[in-house]
Amino acid sequence: MATGVAAWLPFARAAAIGWMPVANCPMPIAPRDNSKKQDELIILNVSGRRFQTWRTTLDRYPDTLLGSSEKDFFYNEETKEYFFDRDPDAFRSILNFYRTGKLHYPRHECISAYDEELTFFGIIPEIIGDCCYEEYKDRKRENLERLQDDQEENMDLKMPNMNFRETMWRAFENPHTSTMALVFYYVTGFFIAVSVITNVVETVPCGATANQKDMPCGERYTVAFFCMDTACVMIFTVEYLLRLFAAPSRYRFMRSVMSIIDVVAILPYYIGLVMTNNEDVSGAFVTLRVFRVFRIFKFSRHSQGLRILGYTLKSCASELGFLLFSLTMAIIIFATVMFYAEKGSSSSKFTSIPASFWYTIVTMTTLGYGDMVPKTIAGKIFGSICSLSGVLVIALPVPVIVSNFSRIYHQNQRADKRRAQKKARLARIRIAKSGSANAFLQSKHNGLLNELLELTGTEEDEQKLTQKSISLLESQHHHLLHCLEKTTAHEFVDEQIYEQNCLETALQTYPSRSPSVSSHDSSTRTCCSRKRKRNVPLPNTSLPTTHSTHQGPLQELSAIHIQCGDPLSHTASRSNLNLKTDESSRINCKSGRITTAIISLPTPPALTPDGDGLHGPPQRRPPRPPSHPPPLSIQTTTSSAGANIVKVSAL
Amino acid sequence: MDAKRVETVSARVDAAVSSTDSVEDELELSAVRHRPEGLEQLEAQTRFSRKELQILYRGFKNECPSGVVNEDTFKDIYSQFFPQGDASTYAHFLFNAFDTDHNGSVSFEDFVMGLSILLRGTVQEKLNWAFNLYDINKDGYITKEEMLDIMKAIYDMMGKCTYPVLKEETPRQHVEVFFQKMDKNKDGVVTIDEFIDCCQNDENIMRSMHLFENVL
């Protein structure tokens, strides 16, 4: 119920006059407001601090402590006030919730104390407004983490029927999920390290043998290194193929950066295999070996930080581009100046402007190798200006990149958090909406039951049903919705019944199956039309044979059944209609002891009168399955057809 | 930084400098606090008692602290009463019916005047109000298209899950029925007189006009 806007209900009801001229049916009667009490101030004494508010303010949220009759427990007769022995500071924000409709979380409060207060006053924390909700959840999470032991979070959302491929992919992506995955993770890491070290050591000159001069180890122990290389490449190839197999979208996997790195890492080896001993391309072959160093990038799978670094660089592309551009400008300017300054001096290394580039770069980055130094005074002056400005130009973009990195890193952490909260929030909204819709349908059940009970006149049932007294606000809101139903001559149903109806209309093949609106018992006309359709296939599916015996006239079977409790319980029962499902659905009913089934078969007076309209007495125990003669008199006997007993179980 | 970005930045700075007036205007707009006329005046203009006006205003001000409702807030509020369907179209028509001076917002006076007619007015006034609601372009005639819009808006509020299942042509059929009843001279439009005449002869409608009298 939109209790936050309860104040607008009178307006919405008044505006309903706009429907009246359009409606074809008469409107239902409005609920009376019997309590003609004036709005009064009530005093809430919370540990000595007195708060005052209107009664109607508190009545806005009838399912909390202060809004319901639960507060009567705290009423103090002598002082005529409600006394609560709770924290007055926290109570402030709770009372503000009633006033404004928004619950705020005061940041200085301890999270568990606040939670306790909310629980005491019957307010669910999900109502906390957007401004404070994130803070609240963060604090709550921190608290939980602190209290929890260091057990590993069970992130194992293992769906029961995940096939082998999906398991493998998950193992690859999250190595912590299973031991095998962890082993695989470390093995590949080890081999990457081995491969990189091999490449490095290959070029180190080993000790000279007797007759040969120093040669790198690679050439000395060719076979050993070749074997090592082969082993590594095999492992990498196997890993790549496995990933390729397990990937949910192979095409996307092949385009991803990591897989390209994998390919580039292992390709040189295969190319080398293919074209050995070919002198022409041996130069190119040597170059290819350079690419083996890319294997080190495979480590980025093992390190989140590396990945973020790479992503940062990608995202800072514009800043890096600017850095490069401005550097280039500065280099060209200073190189030109230096060249012309040093042109005069003899034996100057500054032979051309491009040659001066090297000097400029080395100077601007404050490296200062010293292989090129200016000799003229002008050159020295400009050289010093160059080095000073170099510091500035280099220092500028670096903080940008650093801050980008830090931002992206934290963003990474927060993105997951926000995604989870968003899902929860949407779920909340959906639940609230369906809750209010369900409340209306629920009250319709109760209302209909009340009517029926008046018909049958069972007193205690009536009392039991009206136990759940509905607030005036709710009843007015429901009346409003009821008026809308009458205006449009359609009724609200909940999702499941709607889908069932759709299904039935799709399945209808016999004309005999289609019940018409007019064919039901007049006494329960308004109540039962909704439920009627659900039971229509019931007799059909259970008695295909008997149907065939009926002649042409339109059979109209309407099994009307009222069951209190949510209609959700029926979903299970639809599939196997005639079996014991009745009991199961019965169990689900909250107070479902009333069963009234009315079948009227107003076939034209042919020889196949199948029906008496039987009005079964309300009864408590579940009906037995139709294999035994049901005590609930929902039987239709064909008179002329002899012993054709059509038994229809009452659901 | 590219030249483009430099330009945009400088443009923004220029705009900010030169538009201090508009900033002030914005502040002013957001700080509009509509204050309604005094209680006595409203009491005289409407049929509500002082107490009732107090209650109404408290509720109104609670939801709209600034004192006026704009169309979006109005749609939001009205939609909360009809969770299963989409009430925004009908709320739009309602808003236009309440916003008598057509300034895009409903102040407390508009609100209370409308309510006074709906809850305390004579049957004639109520029917007048309903006619005004249906007549979207306020030209004094209800055409079939206007009625169809209204009808669709009403049916939209029912949502999808209804019994019997809502069909495409249900609103149109309903409009046909309505016109058959109301359009006496069969000229395709319903005038105010036809409307009021016809409604006064219809018992159901007459009875339902008195339905919400005890709302406050």
UniProtKB/TrEMBL annotation, chain A:
GO terms for cellular component: dendritic spine; neuronal cell body; postsynaptic membrane; voltage-gated potassium channel complex. It is found in: Cell membrane; Cell projection, Dendrite. Residues 38-107 form the BTB domain. It catalyses: K(+)(in) = K(+)(out). InterPro entries: BTB/POZ_dom, Ion_trans_dom, K_chnl_volt-dep_Kv, K_chnl_volt-dep_Kv4, K_chnl_volt-dep_Kv4.3, K_chnl_volt-dep_Kv4_C, Shal-type_N, SKP1/BTB/POZ_sf. One of its GO terms (biological process) is action potential. Keywords: Cell membrane, Cell projection, Ion channel, Ion transport, Membrane, Metal-binding, Phosphoprotein, Potassium, Potassium channel, Potassium transport, Signal, Transmembrane, Transmembrane helix, Transport, Voltage-gated channel, Zinc. Residues 538-552, 633-642 have a biased composition (Polar residues). Residues 1-16 form the signal peptide. It is a multi-pass membrane protein. The chain crosses the membrane at residues 180-201, 221-242, 254-275, 320-341, 353-369, 381-402. Pfam families: BTB_2 (PF02214), DUF3399 (PF11879), Ion_trans (PF00520), Shal-type (PF11601). Residues 511-552, 600-643 are annotated as: Disordered. GO terms for molecular function: A-type (transient outward) potassium channel activity; metal ion binding. It comes from the Eukaryota. Residues 512-521 have a biased composition (Low complexity). This is Potassium voltage-gated channel subfamily D member 3. It comes from Oreochromis niloticus. The lineage of its organism: Eukaryota, Metazoa, Chordata, Craniata, Vertebrata. The gene is KCND3.
Automatic annotation (TrEMBL), chain B:
It holds the Pfam family EF-hand_7. GO terms for molecular function: calcium ion binding; potassium channel activity; potassium channel regulator activity. GO terms for biological process: regulation of potassium ion transmembrane transport. Keywords: Calcium, Cell membrane, Cytoplasm, Ion channel, Ion transport, Membrane, Metal-binding, Peroxisome, Phosphoprotein, Potassium, Potassium channel, Potassium transport, Repeat, Transport, Voltage-gated channel. It comes from the Eukaryota. GO terms for cellular component: peroxisome; voltage-gated potassium channel complex. It is found in: Cell membrane; Cytoplasm; Peroxisome. Gene3D superfamilies: EF-hand. This is Kv channel-interacting protein 4. It comes from Oreochromis niloticus (Nile tilapia). The lineage of its organism: Eukaryota, Metazoa, Chordata, Craniata, Vertebrata.
